[in-house]
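Structural prep section.
Before we set up the soaks we want a predicted structure of the protein with adenosine-5'-triphosphate in place, mainly to decide which crystallisation condition to try first. Input record follows.
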Amino acid sequence: MEKLTAVKGMNDVLPPDSAAVEWLEAKVRALMARYAYRNIRTPIVERTPLFIRGLGEVTDIVEKEMYCFEDRLNGDPLTLRPEATAGVVRAALEHNLLYEGGKRLYYMGPMFRHERPQKGRYRQFDQIGAEALGFAGPEVDAELILMAQALWQEIGLTDVRLELNSLGQAQERLEHRRALIAHFEHHAEQLDEDAKRRLYSNPLRILDSKNPHMQALVEAAPKLLDFLGAESLAHFKALTDILEANGVAYRVNPRLVRGMDYYNLTVFEFVTDRLGAQGTVCAGGRYDYLFEQLGGKPAPAVGWALGVDRVLALARGAGLPDLSPTLDAYAVVTDASALPLVLSTLQALRAAGISVQMHAGAGAAMSSMKSQFKRADASGARFALIFGPDEILAHQVTVKPLRDADASQQVHSLADVADWAATLQSAA
Ligand code: ATP
Ligand code: MG
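Run finished without errors. Recording the tokens verbatim:
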């Protein structure tokens, strides 16, 4: 039979590696609570037009990265979400989330993009994102950036830098666009295929080009920042003032344009040199026109998304805390007929907060005491709970310390588990 394997670019996360993901998620949950962001969970599948309208037709994602399919039963065009902002805004509109004011939300979960798999770039990957919906002021842009900065600090990342830019407003971008097209038309012979294709559909994205032969041309291109009016500049300055007051270093990068069409004013990325070409760990910005673009009442919004794999790669490099699981007790059982009593005892212990691993797997013929003790030792548990024939007859259990040579074993009655459960608890 053909061997069944995971889909290329979609990875299994196995223990013990999964502990690092759980660790990061727990850090994020606690962080979000401190900034008053609440969890939102939207479907992994959305209707395809949501992304086409939300992200824009001339974007990498919509042009070539989406997993699209038809619902087999009714032919609906559906897509595995390539990012979550469009879905969050769709949900906010559908449930009228902003009726009583702004909402701060965060999500965690898998995204899907048909990319060429390589280190730090997968076809299914987890993102964690924060979205502040219904707030227009630069202080919310700042809050989001400070929150990300706090996360880096919390998980020990030191090698991430903040890059900032402002995309201004539609009118400003239009004027810049004219200048940009003129500049590129003037040097048409230097444009690569991608750039030629985008010249009239999305020239801003040419600035994002990674083609080394186009770097000089791109460097010399007119800068959007020079086309911003007083209001856009004031928004940008208010943001940078807050960042400076908080000691957050940043670099203004006029070439930072981001992959989605929905951004305006503030855009930013946290980048690192430690992950090769996949150097962006977190990216975001303001998207004040997405609500309208999706057919809703206009509402300002700003958010970011981080790539869990890349953030964890950096966190690993900086050194993770010890995440190995702790186990209080390992249950040694010698007689299958005792299992009902043993399992109800373990149930009571776990209800009291004790972690217990039960020896299992041999069916009616229980494995020897000796091999069970070997397992108990290897499990790392601090105690073995021995349910031997004598113990079962007497409705008792022997608690044997496995790590502390000086401690003596004790016998307890199964009737009053609650009384001795606490003696098993790991010192946290
Ligand atoms: P890139 O320029 O690297 O393709 P992007 O602009 O497509 O990034 P976003 O859509 O802004 O990235 O996603 C935010 C973050 O999600 C990225 O900074 C990155 O950390 C992560 N990310 C994006 N695509 C992938 C992927 N295919 N595999 C793993 N992580 C990813
Ligand atoms: Mg991409």
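Observations: The mean pLDDT is 94.
Flagged for discussion at group meeting.
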